[in-house]
Amino acid sequence: MADIEMASIAGGTVALHDARRKLRWSVELEPFELGVYPVTQWQLAELIGETATHPRRPATEVSWLRAIRFCNAASEWEGLEPAYTYDGEEVTWHVDADGFRLPTEAEWEFACRAGSTRPHYGPLDEVAWTSADGVTAPQDVGGKHPNLNGLFDTLGNVWEWCWDLLDPARYDDYRVFRGGGFADDAWSVRASVRRGGAPRMHHEDVGFRVARGGFDATDAAQGWSAAADAERAAIDGPLPPGWTPRG
């Protein structure tokens, strides 16, 4: 398999917010690794046996569940302990495993910002493929400038799946994707913007990059915890109009 180039991300603090619940909080992160590029069509093809029509472009039309399976397959290829087990669509993250995995939202935003407190880590036309470029598809990875962590395309080109649930009270099992894509205007291509989709959904502008790092904990790590997910999912009374029915 084509090697997955990883960057070492030092630990630190990142500030997050939840617009619907009007909450802001800080997360202390331990060091971890994150892919220098989004996973490419070539890398996906090598592990899953598909044709890579544009080998250096980010792999897209990849559901969250498929990204999880790619992470485990890459771990097994490298002789690492897989980060996930699953029973149907019920996925468990074993946070002490050293294998490939999806980043948490906190990890993703911290690594994307690379010390910046602004919406972008550089002039957007220099660091991200967006609607301003007039392209009609994802572009080869690494075509714009990296951030100070040496990461390419965290903003623009394609959105990237994260591990976390988007808003389990409102959207049930939807998972987060971050970063904006080639068809998005500048407002959506910011380090703090969060969107999401169902685990089986796949889109032409959503891909993923992998993380690594195991932690001495159970069901909680790097800004995520199963207990917090359960708390966020709790709703007293009927769901408001327009909310996704719980599975």
Automatic annotation (TrEMBL):
Residue stretches making up the Sulfatase-modifying factor enzyme-like domain: 6-212
Sequence intervals crossing the membrane: none
UniProt xrefs under SUPFAM superfamilies: C-type lectin-like
One Pfam family it belongs to: FGE-sulfatase
Protein name per Swiss-Prot or TrEMBL: SUMF1/EgtB/PvdO family nonheme iron enzyme
Organism encoding this protein: Agromyces salentinus
